[in-house]
Fold this sequence. Notes:
single chain, 339 residues, alpha+beta, Heat Shock Protein 90, Ribosomal Protein S5, domain 2, 2 domains, 8-stranded mixed sheet, 30% helix, binds magnesium ion
Amino acid sequence: MPDIIHLLPDSVANQIAAGEVIQRPASAVKEMMENALDAGASTIRLIIKDAGKALIQVSDDGQGMSASDAHICFERHATSKISKAEDLFSIRTMGFRGEALASMAAIAQVELKTRREEDEIGILIQTEGSSITREEPCQCPKGTTISIKNLFYNIPARRNFLKSNAVEMRHIIDEFLRIALSHPDRFFSLHHEGQEVYHLPKASPKQRIVHVFGHQYSERLVPVEEDTNIIRLQGFAGKPDYAKKTRGEQFFFVNNRYIRDGYLHHAVMNAYEELLVPGSFPFYVLFISIDPAAIDVNVHPTKTEIKFEDEKPVYAIIRSAVKRSLGRYNIAPSLDFEA
Ligand code: ADP
Ligand code: MG
């Protein structure tokens, strides 16, 4: 019997890995926007065509890449963000796996244009099937523009699995808004089919919420703040009268990263106690700052789940802080000394 094990070619290995990171157009949006944040951009523009199936383009005015960095960035495990295992416990950046661009190049046609401030001329790179097909100097503004064209063009099964444009666009907008909500100090815009869908000027955290959700929210928000030696908590909770029957306006960010956490959601719900009509969900946007060594973000490829070293005190702090805020701000009018 001959031996039967062989190593997969890179293009196949990359495609397999890409399946975990890039499930739909919205995943590519998240990865590219996070890269723009990590590059220190203050302006991030997202352009979408055909709900991301034809084009996802992210332009930023961040630090850009050198020609040789741009050449290597599509390799798997190519990253500027960590270099040794210990670094995993002090992560301050959104990315660190060095998987996103390699994944993108495996399942789409990618075009990168990038220039650093100190370089007179930028570089243009195009890829197809995980290989660079064009590489040449180009005139471009400082920063980076990445265009993801024809996502899943080479994986028909994946492409056929995509939902309607309305559904895919909803996912894209959700990712876009999570990032915009957690970075109010940056400018964001989103265009779909040539129409500007969002235009979000730099703002305070509260103004950003109002820009995203509508003017009526400015009267509905109660500030939440707590500083402890375990976490720092900041954000806003919605007045219970405006709680909705559907979910979708509950946001936790840990070190500016959007996460889902049923246990911490419960802490907030618990703080409202009987103030809520049963079956309704209050609005909240809560930012938790914590020592990166006390969490593990490397538990899931999309990083929307994280592990706390000890979640119980975090639960208790959130519950009591939200409760105190609700008590303090005109929830019970007779107790409202601040109006
Ligand atoms: P990761 O973000 O995990 O490091 P990526 O595959 O997303 O991995 O990106 C690889 C590398 O390419 C990054 O570490 C960064 O150095 C560079 N890069 C990607 N996007 C940008 C960008 N918008 N601006 C500057 N550099 C970028
Ligand atoms: Mg990245």
